[in-house]
Amino acid sequence: MFLSLRAEVEDALEGALSSLAFPTDDLGIEQPPEDVESVLASSAAFRLADEAGAPPPQVASRIAAEIDVDELTYVGAVRTQGPYLNFLPSEAYFSETLAAGTDEAYGSIDGRNESVVVEHTSANPTGPVHVGRARNPIIGDAVANLLAFAGYDVDRHYYVNDAGRQMAVFTWAYETFDEADLEDDPERDRTEYDLVRYYRKGNAYLETADESAVAEAEAEIDAIMQGLEEGDEQTYERVSEVVDQVLSGMKTCLERLPAEFDEFVKETRFMRDGSTDDVVDRLEDLDEAVYEEEAWQLELEEFGIEKNLVFLRSDGTSLYPTRDLAHHEWKFDNYDRAVTVLGEDHKLQARQLRATLDLLGNDTEQLRQVLYSYVNLPEGKMSTRRGTGVDLDDLLDEAIDRAREEVEERLDDRIRDDDLDEDDIERIAHQVGIGAVRYDIVSKQPTKAITFEWEQALDFEAQSAPYVQYVHARCCGILEEAGFDVEAGECPDVDVDAERLEAPEERALLETIARLPAVVDEAAGDLEPHQIATYTREFADRFNAFYRECPVLADGVEPDRRQARLALVAASKHTVANALSILGVAPPRSM
RNA sequence: GGGCGUGUGGCCUAGCGGAGAGGGCAGGAGGUUCCUAACCUCCUGAUCGCGGGUUCGAAUCCCGUCACGCCCGCCA
């Protein structure tokens, strides 16, 4: 409803300004502060003061006088407050919001007929997913959810780097060493924990073994890389054996979040189908291509990038960026838009990729890159190769354990008589524990660096997932108490009068509910799921105020009012459930 | 050295040209015969890193500066 109101205000303002012969390029529409009784405001009068030859408050009054509120649907009144114009919502605004909110899919935007591929995580299949990279699946999954909710046709891809030197090293190590050569047992009974030990062993060997032994190993590693480059089937199968095993373990870990993918796209695919060779040929023909120091490179100064992009090694093999170019052209062929979520350390490569795609004749407007900073430990970086870091599995386990403790602790002094059984406790522990981890990460701007600390990541207090989840549980509690089967999706009748909702807390809550579609639209446009998190927090505040002041089921509440409030609770439930779902945080029906 | 990013009360964080800079944690004081207190109310606490500038108006834009992070491989 907010979007409709905003459109209406824009039209009205534009009309008023032009009939006063003012320029209409700057409507100055903005969000009023919380304590102002309006849903939208304009500060245009400030800037028109010179032209009007009058002080801003007078200009504001003249504009206000020019707007005929009777012609507007969602605006109930226009008032000035000094230089500001305030637009107050009409009764229709509230009632239509209430009606819209009772739809289970409330907040979602109808199909845009536009497909978008969201590539995220894409961690090299070298070992267990650690917390340093955990931001990628969490942000990536939220971005994908957000775009899907905003009406895009979304596919989620994990790009598997199965053609790089790292995988050649891994394959060599896996084939060379035996269980007996490894010092430690796997940290967990899953393939990637098992196999990563070979990878670490191999890397350690290359660093410490004597020169001739290392040279021999390097020769073997080079042979693997050459085999991949030539599309040799046997080499591909050797590497695949390692890649597929490790990847399946990582997949299991990511599913816990849950972060799931429509497709795991292998890098070797673009070597085997000839598209990388094709890219190389086309790159060599570019004016920016140079052959220096026996390697083919691309000069990208015209894009403000000093560093040359090497796209063909002196031994004739391609590099990761070369294959990624073919990969991206494939995405462009199959989707209208492409979004990639990647760590800030890939920023330069991201710019090079974009610039080169441009040189190859692609429309790079289709590509958006979301960058995030790594999560570091207080003592420094996490590394799979060195085995430093906190595994995501361990973080999730710890989160669930702590959440379970919380549930059990609260069991004794629960007022509500809803008989939580063992399954409920486990369900809540999972929803809350994992929700807290995801929310903690997704609620912050991705560009800010995070230092991982257990206590902070697993804080279940206010301004966390449980705080917002609790609101959802409260909504469900009320609806169930009123006789609705929440699990079956039962919902109160929407045919109620929003005029019954006259308390300031009710009005404020409705205003907040009304903004969800606009928040979704904005967040999707900016690819910033943290805006949704900020919204859930504000929503929870508003709901809690309503909960405190406006009893729904108490004896003294008249039937009409009770019905209206039940509808408001239903709209609240859909609002918070949908917002949480975008973030990938489960909305618990009880906790 | 160069490029990019970040700097908001003791700690974490929102806001990124407009209406006393919002929240949360920690600290202090309260609240449960009433739909779940993972909640709510009140208090204490900030020259928005620092210095200039643009503007009627700057946390927000520009310049400089400092601190921290990331990058500057024929690795990915």
UniProtKB/TrEMBL annotation:
The keyword DNA-binding does not apply. Residues 468-591 form the DALR anticodon binding domain. Its EC number is 6.1.1.19. GO terms for biological process: arginyl-tRNA aminoacylation. The keyword NADP does not apply. It comes from the Archaea. GO terms for molecular function: arginine-tRNA ligase activity; ATP binding. It is found in: Cytoplasm. One of its GO terms (cellular component) is cytoplasm. Transmembrane segments: none annotated. Keywords: Aminoacyl-tRNA synthetase, ATP-binding, Cytoplasm, Ligase, Nucleotide-binding, Protein biosynthesis. Residues 3-89 form the Arginyl tRNA synthetase N-terminal domain. It catalyses: tRNA(Arg) + L-arginine + ATP = L-arginyl-tRNA(Arg) + AMP + diphosphate. Gene3D superfamilies: Arginyl tRNA synthetase N-terminal domain, HUPs, Isoleucyl-tRNA Synthetase, Domain 1. NCBIfam families: argS. HAMAP family: Arg_tRNA_synth. Belongs to the class-I aminoacyl-tRNA synthetase family. This is Arginine--tRNA ligase. It comes from Natrarchaeobius chitinivorans. The gene is argS.
